[in-house]
Structure formats: structure tokens, C-alpha cells
# Entry
Amino acid sequence: MNVVQLHDTDLVCLLIDASIQAYRAFNTPALVVAPVGYETLDTWTGVDAVFGKDRRIETYGLALRSLAVPYRYVFAFRGTASFEDGLDDLGARDHPFAPAGPKVPTVPANVPHVPAEVRVEAGFWDVYTTDDGVTSSMQKQVFALLDGYAASDRPIDELWITGHSLGAALSTLFALDVALCRPKIRASHVNFASPRVGNAAFVQFYQQQPAEQAEATRTLRVQNVLDRVPDLPPETMGYRHGSDVTLIEFHKHETLPLEPDFIVHRHAAANYQAVVQCAAASPDGVCVDSNLAVPGESCTLTCRAAD
# Structure
């Protein structure tokens, strides 16, 4: 199965582009270029609390709005350049999932109930929910933006949520939060190169949440079968993936297994984008190319449809 068969082609291409722009919002904000037909509205921050002792406030994502369909919004979360360096630390701790809650604080009985056995990887949860005493948590910021747009003269009709790598994990937490706390919003979630976010109870609870559109895929993961990030945290520690996944396959052309970029190029967002766009441009929706050039990257890819 492939990207085009499983989901709207334009949507998948848009969302990997948005995920890359979320990286740029952190690395080089001046280079952020909204996808064609969209405008950049806002960014949000989070506390870098996973891959180091320094608890820095950093930009972690951006909100976009369609120019042609002004009630369509995109929330894109970024990963981190040092993600690969911290993979060995993933999964050491877990944490219960606590939803953002209703728009207006009410009695606790109105807060969505999450079973106690639903657990998520604590590092991802820290980035999503930690504040530094001055700046609000990412969770509070994204819901403040969500509620602000919903109350504007261009209220949200469609919400598309995305992210790559660590950003995919954060977007998964947000997607569940939206389903629980703003269930009237039509939300679609597509992520790329996602690690495992929670345990089996989390996956089951997540997939039980109803989608506003019956034909919509609740969450679609796009994963390179040669990418090792989606294999973490390990299943032996209780972590699981959901069932809806599009598998692709690519690696750097003529890369030897001991080269440093052997892992990095199989995970890079720009390479995911090149393969997805290649598939989208094909009448069959499949990318088969032994010398696929990657714009902005000094490499070519060997890619084919995954088994």
C-alpha cells in the first residue's frame, strides 16, 4: 500500500512540507516559507527537557492557515537535530496522560477521563507539558491558539496535525488531546518517522476516540522501513505503535553501513519529503528510483515501494 492510496496526496505532501517548516522556525526563522496556498500565523514553544540538562525554552512548532479555505488550519510540530543522539535514553520512564481539559475551567467531573493504565513516554510528555515558571507549557499554548482561532471570524472547520520524529510524538499527544477536549473539531493527523509514544493501553485508548469523519484515518504514520527511530522506545519496554501506517523504503544511494549518515539519511525529513513527492507525482502512487535527488541535500536516494 502507498501514500496516494491511503490518504489524500496533497494533504500528505502539504504536511511533510509543514513539518520541515517547523524545523526552520527553530533553526532559521527568517527562512520559514509557508506551503503554497497557506500563511503562517503563530509559533509555540516548549521546554527542551529530553536531550540534556539545560532546560531551554525553544520554538517547537507553527500554525498555518489556508488562504483558499480560510477555515482550514495546520499545526506542525518539529523534531530536534539531536534526536538521534538521545535515542538510547528513550523509554526509561513513562507517565500518565493528562488531557488539557475543557475550554472554560469547570468541575473536575467534566474533565475527560483517561484510564490510569494509559501511559506515555515521559520525555515526550515533559516537552509537551513542562513550563519554566514564566512561559506556559506547550500544551497550554497550543490550546490557547486553538481556542483563539475557533473564536475568531475564521473559526476552525478542519484541523490538520503533523510532525516528524520527536515532532511526530508531540503531534500524537496533541491529536489525542484535541479528540478528548475539543471533540467537535474535525481533526486529521498524519506524522512521519514517529517513535513509539505510549504503551498498549495508550494505543487502544487513542484508537477508540471517534473521528468526526467516518472515512478519515484517525492517524496515519508514514514510516521508512529502514529508519530505526520508529523502533524506539523498544517493544520490550511495553511501547507500541498504532495500526494505521504507510510503509516506504529508502536509503542514501551507495551508502555503506558504517558511514555516519547510514542512519541519519534514513530518518531525515527532507528525504521523507522527496520520496513522498516522488510517489505523489507517479500515476501509480509509487516511487521507484535508484537515483532520486533530494533538493537542498547533497545526496541521492535509492527508494522503492515497501513490501
Q: What stands out?
A: Residues 9-27 form the longest helix (19 residues). The chain has eight helices and 13 strands.
